[in-house]
Design a protein that fits this description.
six-stranded antiparallel beta sheet; 54% strand; mainly beta; 107 residues
Length: 107
Amino acid sequence: MTAYQIEALSRRLTGRPVEYLEFMNVPDMSCGVYRLVPGASDPQQPHSQDEIYYVINGAGSFRDDDGVRQISPGDILYVPANATHRFEDIMQTLTLLVVFAPGKRQA
């Protein structure tokens, strides 16, 4: 088992307006901390893997093909592989736990 502490991971971020710190990468999954400050523009492009975001702190909006929703601490967002999505209208610095994993494969 390997344990991580979000406070310690967050201290490793350097303070840029948009920042991603990958802290784990194994064959079927990777995890990181993603941080965006108010006024930052989310540069994301669709990813080739399924993705889960857990909002640790902050406030803003999340846009995908289904529309826009306000997000806040405790929200969990699932984004399927190759889906267009981004964070916008960041009102308070967003810190997110991000988990990437390949989608279910057909046998």
